[in-house]
Amino acid sequence: MKFFQTLSRIILLTGFLITFFSVQNILAQENKQQDVVYLKNGTVLHGKIVEIEANKTITFISNCGDKWVINQSEIEEIKKKDISSNPYLNLSSPFIEYKTEGFYSKLNVGFLFSGNIDTPFPPLSLILLGGYDFKNKFSVGGGVGLDLLNEAYMPVVADLKYNFTSGKINHYIYFQGGYIVPLETPDPYDYDYSSDYLSDISSDGGYLINPGLGLKLFINEKNAFSFGIGYKYIHINHSYKEQNGQTIDRVIKYNRVVLSFGYHFM
Q1: How many other C-beta atoms can be found within 10 angstroms of the C-beta atom of residue 8?
Q2: Kindly report the CA angle at 22 between 17 and 27, in degrees rounded to 5?
Q3: Half-sphere exposure (CA, 13 Å, Cβ side) for 165?
Q4: Which domains does the chain show, CATH number per domain?
Q5: d(CA 53, CA 188)
Q6: Do the bridges between strand 124-133 and strand 57-62 make them parallel or antiparallel, or are there none, so unpaired?
């Protein structure tokens, strides 16, 4: 397991570096102009006018992604201003048509926390997901990954998601479930098996479920960074033989809190 412990440290560092440079990319976006609409009732809207119907209405998309259809009789004034001139949106980007429909891919790095703090780093969970985002805010996909528990396992999962919002910042809930395939033979000492049970120990795999919630932050039209927290339950079947040749089955259960960081490319 030394190889996997080293791999965990490397990817943990990589995750923090991705986070750092993604945030830097967001903060370093150059200032551009936006439309500012002043309404007669005192409301001020920042974003972009996308359609004008002469002497009737304008269609306006705010920087938060909300769509407004406004009667021109309600408008006091329209101006062009730099993003930096809006004190409430200094870190916001100008209007961008973020991709919310179509095929997506996501690389997710997760850390599996439990009550055991004997190890300096929590077990690592990697997964590559792909699927389709629908107009109704539902997403359906699947993925394959690597979970570094006492042994290495390969999860194969279905991935379901619902987005509560659309725009630069999306809030969502997700559910993953599927089968987990063993990649290593269990070490009997990791499970306190006595020396009488050291014959033909194997893991037959099992199933997992992983619900959670997350936040997705677009860094440009098609790429986004996400943070998630969830609960992961893993049910694994072990078997071994006693000295008398009798086969014994044992169930291993993992209950973990998952903190994840993802990169979306669509």
Answers
A1: 20
A2: 125
A3: 14
A4: 33-85 (2.30.30.100), 99-265 (2.40.160.20)
A5: 74
A6: unpaired
The Cα 225–Cα 262 span in angstroms is 6
- List the one residue out of 232, 230, 229, 179 whose CA is nearest residue 209: 232
Cβ(78)–Cβ(37) under 8 Å? yes
Please state the rounded mean pLDDT for residues 194-204.
Answer: 68
Mean of the per-residue pLDDT values of the chain = 79
- Select from 142, 122, 121 the least CA-distant residue to 130: 142
pLDDT at residue 47 is higher than 70: yes
Instruction: Judge if pTM exceeds 0.70.
Output: no
Do residues 210 and 157 make contact, with C-beta atoms less than 8 angstroms apart? yes
Residue 76 has pLDDT above 50, yes or no: yes
